[in-house]
Amino acid sequence: MIQARPAGLDLLDLARRAGLESIGKKVLGGERLSLEDGLALYRTPELHLVGLLANHVRERLHGDLAYFNVNQHVNYTNLCNKLCRFCAFQRLPGQEGAYQMTPEQVADKVRAQLGEPVTEVHMVAGVWPKIPYSYYLEILRAVKAVRPAIHIKAFTMVELDQIAKVARKPLEQVLPELIEAGLGSVPGGGAEVFSERVRQATYHLKLSGEQWLDTARKVHRAGLRSNCTMLHGHIETLEERVDHLDRLRRLQDETGGFQTYIPLSFHPENSEMSDVPGPTALDELRELALGRLMLDNIPHIKAYWILMDIPVAQVALSFGADDVDGTVVEERIYHDAGATTPQHVRRSELVQWIRDAGRIPVERDTLYNVVWSADPGRAPVGRPAPVHA
Q: 304 near 335, Cβ under 8 Å?
């Protein structure tokens, strides 16, 4: 159900009653929130107020529009040596279920969707040091050979770090070669939480927060846009979440390269951290709202439906989110971790979900160019600024 949308004075009055008047004034005035403000919003029991504040910002930026795209996922290998305790997808060679697709198999996945109006292929996978540099170029070229016009969003910052290592070249030299082979943008996974305490406890073999941010900085300087993420709902503290959001915000001030923030819900099933309960639906809504309120310089907030029940993703469109991702097709990473959502939805289903949530569906490409709108008269409020060189 869509929340009531109070006028500014009513919203400020609600904030005053909740002891959050100064935050309400900042939100209504378009001012940046402090780390202390973020902690207050995490701690307040007034979740509906947090949602209303986030919805105010969301509608100021995007009105009633809600974005989706027609995409497909290809998780090209689950071989991984990072051994993250929260991951149920990773395998070592010889383990049951371990696989690495050939470039031809990657091409076959794309070829199987030629009858669908797919505009993006999203390729992320495990990190395995024995995969040669040439392989990454070959899978990009294989996708482009089958579907030349498709946009390839591929390789998390963690994967890019490994690709540069096996190439034995600086990432600044590797990125132009990947772009020439077909890379169009970069997803935001692998950031987890930028806390060194959390990294040592759960994913100590992966990039540190500073290394992830530095890799993203290089990606943006190469002219590529990326997404950014936070894995929430495990052992991180509220202070660590706010710090993570602030560090994303500061890099965005510097580069302007992040186009979408996606809070990723921890799924404990089938992982070494199965004793951790994971986030509730209310936690997910609060996380989306905090992302919208704290990340004032990132244009879009995504409710990634694959990670949450579809009704929660619909409600999220009134808690700060303006995007629900896409049709997906065969997502494996989160389904191996126990996600029970569908692996594929039809375009018409996404359109109906958005309409049922009281929003106007807008099909976009990866870079948020409008492909189709249910209301062509309502254009997007604005385009994101170009990536800073």
A: no
Question: Tokens 């579907």 identify what position?
Answer: 147
3-class SS shares of the chain: helix, strand, coil, % to 5:
40, 15, 45
pLDDT tens figures, 270-311: 677 877 788 999 999 999 999 999 999 999 999 998 888 889
Angle at 263 between CA 349 and CA 252, to 5 degrees: 115
Q: Are 56 and 28 in contact (CB under 8 A)?
A: yes
CB 265 within 8 A of CB 227: no
Look at 347 and 26; give whichever has higher pLDDT. 26
Could you tell me the pLDDT band of residue 6, with boundaries at 50, 70 and 90? confident
Q: How far apart are CA 180 and CA 163, in angstroms?
A: 15
263: which strand partners? Answer: 230
* Structure tokens given for 279: 């986030």
Task: For 201-218, write each residue's pLDDT tens digit.
Answer: 999 999 999 999 999 999
Model confidence pLDDT, tens digit, residues 43-93:
999 999 999 999 999 999 999 999 999 999 999 999 999 888 888 888 999
CA dist 183 and 189 (Å) reads: 16
What DSSP character marks residue 147?
A: -
The answer to whether 338 touches 328, Cβ cutoff 8 Å, is: no
Torsion of CA 218, 222, 223, 227, to 10 degrees: -30
Residue 145 contacts residue 188 (beta carbons within 8 Å): no
Give the tokens for residue 30: 């378009």
Which runs of consecutive H residues, i.e. helices, occur in the chain?
8-17, 21-29, 35-43, 47-62, 103-111, 133-146, 157-167, 171-181, 196-202, 209-221, 238-255, 281-294, 310-316, 333-336, 347-356
Query: 309-318 as b/e, with b when 16 or more CB fall inside 10 Å?
Result: ebebbbbbbb
| Cα torsion 65, 69, 75, 81: sign | negative
